Amino acid sequence: MRVLVTGHKGYIGTVLVPMLLAQQHEVVGLDSDLFERCTFGEGIEAIPEIRKDIRDVEASDVEGYDVILHLAGLSNDPLGNLNPNLTAEINYRASVRLAQLAKQVGVGRFIFSSSCSNYGAGGEELLNEESAFNPVTPYGESKVGVEKDVSQLADDNFSPTFLRNATAYGVSPRLRFDLVLNNLVAWAFTTGRVYIKSDGTPWRPIVHIEDISRAFIAAMNAPREAVHNEAFNVGRNDDNYRIRELADIVEEVVPGCKVEYAEDGGPDKRCYRVDCSKILRVLPDFKPQWNARRGAEELYAAYQNIGLTLEEFEGEKYKRIAHIQSLLGSGKLDGDLRWKAAVSV
Ligand SMILES: NC(=O)c1ccc[n+]([C@@H]2O[C@H](COP(=O)([O-])OP(=O)(O)OC[C@H]3O[C@@H](n4cnc5c(N)ncnc54)[C@H](O)[C@@H]3O)[C@@H](O)[C@H]2O)c1
């Protein structure tokens, strides 16, 4: 298939692209490359690409593809909180416009990287795709907005699919430390201590970025009827963990480290569990292969391999909000999160 991947230079995109290439798909990327200075370890597989802001996409950029995998955007709550208007502009309005353009030029499939943050604070209840939207942040609101508007575009020739990913983890050429498991292992590795600010009871579903990529691939290869205007939680039911359980796993995987809990740490508001049975039932080709323990082992080995230092861990290179703030502070990005200097196309 001819595939356009937006956000191909991000944490998930740089893992997804090689997996698509391994399946002989013809892949083109589109990304403004906000994290161009943030590569971890070995480089990123080069593919034909359009270096462009998603807000500036034109019909000619999206023409001629069988499917668009749309991942570009501001990718977590802290970044989404930076400027809620911009979050709406980039994550919501530009995504809806991208889908409209895709439909206009005859791209039949559009798979959106949505999020379990659509459900907001869920508590103990297991949330499935029928559960009510209850976004509690600008980031969550932007994802819900896209799902609502893009689902209206579905017709005989245009099939959108919404993949509601759990919190990601895993090693990527664009590694991030602002994700719970990546962060806990990095704390343990660089300081020998894992400090948990809550009481450790909140639930958090997590999913490896390779398994997220498998979900994209399974959805694009599935018969149209199976995925037409459907939403899927992406993860495994067994991978709903309490933060405390994740911390215990990290303590077991990273030799000599100790977990500590804040004395006044109460339960965290961000607590939810998701039911991922639907994707396993409807997309039999989706075979997730990771769990938290294997993920912690992978991360630990990668940190050892690169000799991760506390300075790097605490620096801005691998934390999205800190990196964007640094680009804003140094004047490389303008207040609209666009590169100031002309970029090569
Ligand atoms: N990582 C997670 O835990 C997670 C969970 C659920 C959903 N998602 C979603 O998956 C997608 C990818 O996430 P990620 O973790 O790889 O994020 P990321 O921040 O690592 O990558 C996002 C990419 O989008 C690009 N981008 C940002 N704004 C852009 C713009 N205006 N124009 C063009 N490109 C732009 C960035 O340069 C970056 O390469 C996002 O939509 C995110 O919301 C991520």
If you had to describe this structure to a student in words, what would you say it looks like?
- With 345 residues, the protein is an alpha/beta fold.
- It has a domain at 2-171 and 206-236 and 274-292 and 320-329: NAD(P)-binding Rossmann-like Domain (Rossmann fold, 3-Layer(aba) Sandwich), CATH 3.40.50.720.
- The chain has helices at residues 13-22, 59-62, 77-82, 84-104, 138-151, 180-191, 209-221, 224-227, 243-253, 277-282, 292-306, 310-314, 320-329; strands at 2-6, 26-31, 49-51, 67-70, 109-115, 126-127, 159-165, 167-169, 193-196, 203-208, 230-234, 240-242, 258-261, 273-274.
- Bound molecules: nicotinamide-adenine-dinucleotide (NAD).
- Residues 7, 9-13, 31-35, 53-55, 71-75, 90, 113, 115, 165, 167-168, 174, 179, 320 line the site of nicotinamide-adenine-dinucleotide (NAD).
- InterPro entries: Epimerase_deHydtase, Lipid_A_modif_metabolic_enz, NAD(P)-bd_dom_sf.
- It holds the Pfam family Epimerase.
- Residues 3-235 form the NAD-dependent epimerase/dehydratase domain.
